[in-house]
Amino acid sequence: MNFDNTIFNTIDNGIIILDENLNILAWNRWLEIRTDILEKDIEGQNICEKFTYIDNKKLKRKVKAALVTKNPSYYNVDPHQHLIKIKIHSINSVYEYMQQDVTIVPYDIDKKIVCLYIYDKTALCEINLKLERLNDELIDLSNKDYLTKVYNRRYFNDFAKKAIELAKRSEHDLSIVAIDIDRFKTINDTFGHIIGDEVLVTISDILRNTIRKSDIVARFGGEEFILLLNNASLKDATKIAEKIRKIIENTKIEVDGKEINMTSSFGVATFNKENEEDITSILQRADDLLYIAKKHGRNKVVSSL
């Protein structure tokens, strides 16, 4: 077919002319440059036979829709995000292949010919991806403790209210574990705040790595942490607390050739379904049990309904 080569080959988008059977009638310069396929080498070939990853039925349906309605038809490029696979050579791009939008426009209704416009939206996708990541980082910053990267008290309170409502509806157990690092002030005074921070981070990592994905850990301030254990009875929660206590007890931090011994005390309380108590009440009970653990020699787990 003869096309206006000036417009056809200078426009900054890919253009493919197809008949109703998806045979390629024209392939512009933009595509030649980016695919290394010359128009003379592809003209007359069926686009779905040449590029077997294209959904034949979907494309045929869209071409027919454009011809019948005499209006542009948007072609959804899922799942590949492209119609024609075009490699991106920039080392700065997060994508391996060009991200594309494709619109099918009636070109000659009588001859049942359509024009496919391929838009390169890679740059836009990269900007959106960066914004999504920045947004995720901001949410993470607002929900987590800056030093230890575990959740903060505000996030914990919001999460706990929802978890209690879920526990009521599904009638499953929910337990709270209050944790306090023993003699943390002595560590800070003896070795300095940098080592104190290392202790906080080390214990946070232990807590985070020991609980299940359905549970959360939060720093409530200073050397105090809280665990919320979903679907965990008092017996289960006590067992988890005891496991963590032993791991902390056996973990050493070395400073100038000396080992710092760490221990923690635990108070474990379980949601009382009969009294329908709120999170404040459970936290208070866990904190009271933690106080008993510290009062009776520290490095202990004390639990109660």
From TrEMBL:
Every GGDEF domain range: 172-305
Family annotation (InterPro entries): Diguanylate_Cyclase, GGDEF_dom, Nucleotide_cyclase, PAS-like_dom_sf, PAS_fold, Rev_trsase/Diguanyl_cyclase
Gene Ontology biological process terms, A to Z: cell adhesion involved in single-species biofilm formation; negative regulation of bacterial-type flagellum-dependent cell motility; regulation of DNA-templated transcription
CDD domains, alphabetized: GGDEF
One term of GO molecular function: diguanylate cyclase activity
Assigned EC number: 2.7.7.65
Annotated GO CC locations: plasma membrane
Catalysed reactions, as listed in the record: 2 GTP = 3',3'-c-di-GMP + 2 diphosphate
Gene3D superfamilies, sorted: 3.30.70.270, PAS domain
SMART domains recorded: GGDEF
Broad enzyme group: transferase
PANTHER family: DIGUANYLATE CYCLASE DGCM-RELATED (PTHR45138:SF9), REGULATORY COMPONENTS OF SENSORY TRANSDUCTION SYSTEM (PTHR45138)
The protein's name in its UniProt record: diguanylate cyclase
